[in-house]
Each structure stands twice: as structure tokens, then as C-alpha cells.
Amino acid sequence: MFKKILVANRGEIACRVIRTARRMGIRTVAVYSDADRNARHVELADEAVPIGPAPSRESYLREDAIVEACRLTRAQAVHPGYGFLSENAAFCERIEREGIVFIGPKAHSMRAMGDKISSKKLALAAGVNTIPGHNDAIETASEAVRIAAAIGYPVMIKASAGGGGKGLRVASDDAACAQAWESCRNEARNAFGDERVFIEKYVEQPRHIEIQVLGDAHGNLVYLWERECSIQRRHQKVLEEAPSSFLDEKTRHAMGRQAVALARAVNYQSAGTVEFVVSRDRSFYFLEMNTRLQVEHPVTEMITGLDLVELMIRAAAGERLPLAQEDVRLEGWAIECRINAEDPLRNFLPSTGRLVRYLPPPEAEGAVRVDTGVQEGGEIPVHYDPMIAKLIAHGASRSQAITRMRDALNAFVIRGVSSNIAFQAALMQHPRFLAGDFDTGFMNEEYPEGFSAAALVHDDPLLLAAVAAFARRRYIDRAVRTSGQLHGHGRKVGNEWTVLMGDRSYALTLDPIDGGYAVMHDGQTCELKSAWRLGEFLFRGTWNGEPVCLQLERIGLRYRVCHWGTQADMMVVSARAAHLLSLMPDKPAPDLSRFLLSPMPGLLTEVPVRVGQEVKAGEKLAAIEAMKMENILKAERDCTVAEVMAKRGDNLAVDQPILRFA
Question: Within 13 Å of residue 190, how many CA atoms lie on the same side as its CB?
């Protein structure tokens, strides 16, 4: 077994690999860019080596820097994690020429599966179901239109070297096909250095289901059941679960056997994933094979009891798989929510900055797991993907796993950057998700205008109001104690409060009881008990005897309560103050309609307009790159450019003006 391995990655996956290596008694080496000098994975590793500036192409994608770090530290093996160099066959070969073991598949397997065109041909030869389409590179937009029309719309235009949602578009007519061909080529060239694209039939109402496979150098291969990855946004997975509520036993085993057949055809040695698209009648078709560890691998670990990173390390060291297919167990249900630094209320735009508060929910063996690469006080940089953590919940049943996930999301505190926790909480209570009635079109169907606060209507707003009043009363009690007033003067405080929550108000009476207050509202009496202390972010207690966990903070004169994804900012005042506030005029918001503002922090890569230019609605005004994604800003209406206020190459802040219109 290896004595020392180098982890050629960063963030959550680097920390996850280090954790397993440490348990196995293997020393670890971290590599880091200038932006990650104080990152968590650097602290966790036994050694750490700097490899360059913040941009990944100057650090984590530098093969020579990784090789030199191995030489310097005498690392015997390299685990690439996912992303970066994990599926780079040339890097794999270079590492092994240096006498270092690559913890992953061999280069020939990567090459065979890394090209979507050749992999589809290979899958056909291996007897794997494939989607009808044109499997050769398409050179012109007119050729793409001709081929798409012959296949029949809708079609999917895909980059041969694509992945992670990049270089992928769906087209329903000739015009959209021509535009999609050009967009895919450009995006693929920029992201992968390979502009080849191909076309295949788009399966309508598809489910995205993948099979985890595992192989060793002795010809042993097993499949570790499936993962459902159908809930996606912009072709990027949002949450995953294992197993799939859609598959029956017959389909599950048929997909597993085909996945193993494909892996065997390329002599696959390590952990890998064969992705399928599954139609409404459970017909399934090969999409691609990811020759690396997947982001969502923890759900497979939770239902099988296996450590995939450990098995990858052992396979790379030449050991045989410790189990046969009949030994692979499937126990319970697991769900993974990707917790990202993005603002769901601003169309999921990236959010960067310092993690002022970071309190993940407590882990519980076999129930709740948190895989993270950050810590409180750390930075979320603009240079990399927006993942903060992966939250995984396991239960004996799907419903229990969902309940545990909801509770864990309630207890996940992130401040300083925006996160998608509220959106994940909304998904955990969406009727279609609860029923397992969804496909890859779920997001477009349920949130066609994007995600908004209107999607988060709390089923018990009285609870939120009561918690705010509870906090207000505790602050008042402290003020009375610290000011030296006698408790006999409590009549100045009183027990009647009005809670203002948006356009609603709640007249509450709070009477002290053992451990909390009896809350009276509109003839109804509820009991709220808690040992909450001033300044704590988590409010744990009971509401009418049922346990509750909410997030609570005081912001100026307001109290912010978060629960089940709902965020409510409330004022707790006397009835007289509530009346006076209702008479105050509203301050109008400033008119910013004549400006194009940056919706996110990022690099301004293009400003294709000039002063005096008349632009039409829908025309491109600017392009911003942030967290490995290009975001195009288009004109919402016809207008004339009066001033260009930022230039290409500028690093923009949120709401920084880019253009002013006449």
C-alpha cells in the first residue's frame, strides 16, 4: 500500500480524499493556488505545495507543477478528485512515466470514453443501448440543420469533449439548431480546447440515471446500483438520490449489466460512472461514461456501506475488489443536496466573498453527512466552481431521508455569501419531488421564471411570528436586567406585541411558562419553549410539543427567521407603534432602469456595443465570466447606449454599472 499520496485538487473533494487516506494510515500532500493558501484542504493535509496563481489554468491545470510537487514530496501516487486533470489521459500517462501511480482508470480507458463520439460507437459495439443520432463531428451550421431535420426535432447538440453542462444545447427548429451549433462550438473551444460537436435525438421527458461501476486490475467489475440525477438546472445537477424511485428491479439490473459490459470493453480499472437517459416507458440509452469519481458518489456510499475513495486507492495499488456482485448491498435511501455559493433569487448567479458564519449541521453516523472544503472565515473565490458543501441524508426509506434532509437544511447556517439552501429546502417539500414525479424538465416546468420567494410560502407563519416575539421579549428582559430596573416595573414592557411580517401583522400575547411562553393569537394558544440564548443563530425548541429548529438573527430593529427555506424579516412592536408605522410613507426605490448593472461578481469578458449604438431587445450587451460559467447579458428592450462605464478585463462587483442608456 502507498505511504504517501498527492491530491491534485482543491475544496470539498480534496478534503474528502484526505479524510479516507488518513483513516488508511496514508500521508497526504495538498497542492494549492495563491487563492487557496489558507484553504481547509491545505490545513488537513500532512504537507502542502504551492503551484501557482489563482486561475486554474495557471495552477490546478498545470501538469508540470503537479509532477514537480510529487517529486518534491516523494508522493507515490496521485488522486485527481473530479474536474481539473481527473480525466486527462495525457496527464495520467505523464504521471505514470514518472513512476507515480494514477489513482483512477488507465489512459486508454479515459481516451475511449472521453470522446463522446467514439464512446458512443464503442457502446454500440458492446451491446449498450444508444440514442439515435449522428455520431461524427459536424463542420457547419447548415450541415447541423440538415442532420437535425433528418433525425427529427427536438435534437440535442453536444460537444464531443463536453461535460458539466458546457457545450450542450437543445434545439426545436432550424434557426435554434444553427445558433446552438455555433454556441456549442464556441463554448467547447473555450472550455475544452476541442470544438467538435455532434447531434442526437432529444428524448422528451427523460430521467437522468447513472450507474456506478468499480473495477480492478484483475478483470473484476461490479455495479453499485444507480443514482437519480434528473433535477438539474442549466444541465447541472442540483440534487441526487440513490436508488431511483422510478426504476423497477428488472430495469435496474439491465442497466447495471450494460454498464459493466461497457466498462469491460475498455478494461476499466477504478471507480467510474455510466450515465443513461431513461424514457417514460423505462427504455434507457447510453449518454456518456465519466472516468472519474463523481460529485454525487456519497449517496452510493451511504446505501452500500462502501468507501469509494478507499476502493479506488486499493485498486490502484493492485489489490483485488473485496466483493462480488452478489455481495453489493442496497440499504435504505440517500439524498445529496449541493450547497452552492449562488443566489437563487437572482437567477442563481454566483456569490463570492468571505464566509462570515459557517455552521454546518452536526453529522450523525448513517443519517447525516457533510462533505465540505471550507471553514468559517474562509473565502469563496471567483476562480472556481461555487460549491460550498455537499449535504447528504440517509434513512431507512425515501420519506425518512427527505425528513432528515429538511431538518439538516434548517440547521445549515451560512452568512457572508448567498447560498441555495432556501431553494434546496423548497425542493424537499415540492409535491412532485415528494411523489417522485419529475424528469430533467422539472426546473423549467416548475420555475419557468426562475426561483422566487413566492415559491416559499410557510405553512405555519404563526410559528415564525412567535419566534420573533420570543426573541424580542428576551432582548427586552436583558435590557431590564442590565439597566437596573426592578421587575415590578415590567408593566412598561408588557406582554402584548404586534409582529409585522410583510403586509401581514400578528397581534400576540406572550405569557411566561416553564421553559418558554404561551403564545396567544386570535383565540388560539400555542406553546413555544426553547433554551435559546441571545446571539445564537439556531433557535432549537418545541412548538406545541413538536421539536423545531429555525435560524434567527437580529438585524437592526428587525428579526430575521429562516425555516423550511422561508426567510421572514419582521418587526416586533407595540400596537401603537404598529399603527404609527402604517401611516409612514414608503420611500421609492431609485430608478436604475437606464443602467446595465452587473448581476454578479465576475470578469467582464466582452462589451460588444459602443456609445451611440442603437440595440434591439434580445441583443447581447455584455458577457461576464464567473465560477467557470459564461453569463450573457442581453437588452430587455430597444435602447441607445449613452455611456460605456466598464471595459473588457474589469473585475466587476455586484450591481456595478456597465452601461448607461439614453
Answer: 13
Q: Which residues of the chain have pLDDT under 70?
A: 163-164, 484-493, 628
> Coil, strand or helix: which one is 279?
coil
Helices (H), 501-611: 575-582
The predicted-structure confidence for 439-481, as pLDDT tens digits, reads as follows 999 999 999 888 987 778 899 999 999 999 999 999 988 887 7
Residues 311 and 104 sit within 8 Å (Cβ to Cβ): no
Per the structure block, which three cell numbers stand in for 653? 462587483
d(CA 180, CA 191): 16
Q: Given this structure, which CATH class describes domain 132-201?
A: alpha beta
CB-CB contact of 442 with 432 (8 Å): yes
Q: Report d(CA 166, CA 60) in Å as an integer.
A: 19
Tell me the per-residue pLDDT of 66-82, one tens digit each, with 9 for 90 and over: 999 999 999 999 999 99
Task: Report d(CA 493, CA 474) in Å as an integer.
Answer: 11
Cα angle: 386, vertex 391, 395; to 5 degrees: 155
Element (H, E) at 186: helix 174-192
- What's the confidence (pLDDT) of residue 628? 65
CATH code of the domain made up of 595-661: 2.40.50.100
> How would you label 242-256 residue by residue, b for 16+ Cβ within 10 Å and e otherwise?
bbbebbeeebbeebb
Angle of CA points 214, 312, 292, to nearest 5°: 70
* CA 111 – CA 89 distance, rounded (Å): 6
Is residue 569 classed exposed, middle or buried when 0-12, 13-18 and 19+ CB atoms within 10 A define those classes?
A: middle
Which CATH topology does 461-582 take? Glycoprotein, Type 4 Pilin (3.30.700)
What is the CATH T-level fold of the domain 207-455, as seen in this structure?
D-amino Acid Aminotransferase; Chain A, domain 1 (3.30.470)
* Active-site hit among 187, 240, 288, 296: 288
Active site residue 241: no
* Strand 232-233 versus strand 236-237 pairing type: antiparallel
